[in-house]
């Protein structure tokens, strides 16, 4: 059976755009993730996937790809759907959080049944992008 995760990511992304919000993806970076490594903090990165920032955005069932600018340089981004920790609106923090990828950045098993740690997500987003506001309405999906 196909995972519901990519469908939920697309739905929250569309809702953000319809409401005039900026959709952000929080991603657990692993060897399959193609992002500029200098922007990765504690194995995670937060990406703006709004219409102004993510060009040629494709949210597929297995991966998310787009072109983005980092410090003025264009970069082809590729994120496995399994690596997405959350998608949320920058302006109010509403969105969804997902189980963490069961592999860490070195590709080693870190245990079964991990969940998205919103405290770690908040710490990572503080370094790269504004975190979801306190009391945000992220819904955790397992």
Question: Mind explaining what this structure looks like?
Answer:
This protein is of the alpha+beta class and 142 residues long. It has a single domain (5-141), classed as SspB-like (SH3 type barrels). It is 18% helix and 32% strand. It contains two helices and eight strands. A five-stranded mixed β-sheet has the order 2-1-6-7-8, sandwiched between helices. Helix 2 links the parallel strand 7 (95-98) and strand 8. The longest helix is centred in the N-terminal third of the chain and has 15 residues, at 5-19. The protein is globular. It starts with a helix and ends with a strand. Mean pLDDT is 80; it is low at 104-128.
Please identify, by name, the CATH architecture: Roll
Strand content: 25-35%
Mean pLDDT: 80
Distance between the termini: 15 Å
Low-confidence region ranges:
104-128
The number of strands is: 8
What is the overall silhouette?
A: globular
CATH topology: SH3 type barrels
State the secondary-structure class.
alpha+beta
The domain count comes to 1
| Helix and strand sequence | HEEEEEEEHE
User: Main sheet: which strands, in order across?
Assistant: 2-1-6-7-8
How many distinct helices? 2
| Helical residues, percent | 10-25%
The CATH class turns out to be Mainly Beta
Looking at this structure, what is the CATH superfamily?
SspB-like
Work out the radius of gyration. 14 Å
Task: Report the major sheet.
Answer: 5 strands, mixed
């Amino acid at each position: 059976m196909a995972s519901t995760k990519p469908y939920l990511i697309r739905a929250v992304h569309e809702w953000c755009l319809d409401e005039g919000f900026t959709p952000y993806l929080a991603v657990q970076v692993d060897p399959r993730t193609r992002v500029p490594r200098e922007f990765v903090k504690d194995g995670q990165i937060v990406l703006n996937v709004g219409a102004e920032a993510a060009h040629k955005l494709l949210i597929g069932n297995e991966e998310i790809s787009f072109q983005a600018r980092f410090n003025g340089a264009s970069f082809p981004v590729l994120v496995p759907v399994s690596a997405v920790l959350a998608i949320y609106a920058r302006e109010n923090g509403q969105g969804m959080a997902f189980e963490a990828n069961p592999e860490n950045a070195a590709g080693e098993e870190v245990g079964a049944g991990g969940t998205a740690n919103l405290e770690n997500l908040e710490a990572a987003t503080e370094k790269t992008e504004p975190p979801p506001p306190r009391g945000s309405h992220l819904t955790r999906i397992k």
